[in-house]
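In this section we walk through a basic example: taking a raw amino acid sequence and producing a predicted 3D structure, encoded as discrete structure tokens. The instruction is simple. Fold the sequence below.
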Amino acid sequence: MNYRKKYMKIISKARKESRRKNCGIYYEEQHILPQAIFPLWKNRKSNKILLTGREHFEAHKLLAKIYGGKMINAIHRMAFGCHKNKYNITAEEYEEIRIIWAQRAREMNTGKKHSNEAKIKSGRYWKGRKRNIESVKKSADARRGVLRTEQQIVNISKGTSEGMKKVPYEKLAYWKGKSSPGMANMTGKCWYNNGQIEIASFNCPDGFIKGRLSGKKRKTKKT
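The resulting token sequence is shown next.
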């Protein structure tokens, strides 16, 4: 498919309509020659065109296929970044964008090795850091309702299988058919708490109620 020709067809259609903002129709400004690749054309009036939201999204999909690189970053931000609610993408579009994004990530990271200094610096930066609740919620909301493709399911299954092959045979043989020691000791017990500590026991101790404490208050004892 000639992506460049298809892209120019969208631009030509917009030019013929002599579009203007604030005329009752929603438009978004598009740089015909992408500013990330052609910075000298950034402020030229002749390089700007008004597109509908759908046309703008389609245009960037085509630019990602024409130029790759930074234009893949741009379409990925449009689909999954802070402006994602403006573009209701289909499952097919979601998969298509994720595939070209994954290909770019592989190309950027293939053969790339971090120096020991970079690893130490990264470790110091992330040590003790915790994601805030808003960040976790935002990530969860972004993934909610998104179904994995068949290929993704196969890749995850394959990765798990490959990971299990690296576990020493002696360890696999030892744990086969066994539960963890901690779980084995819990057989028949329930959790009880008194508001300060929690205990796993067969019977409810005096002054305790059934149930566990919240994570921040949790101080555990097993009997």
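Looking at the output, two observations stand out. The radius of gyration is 27 Å. The chain has nine helices and six strands. In the next section we compare this with other chains.
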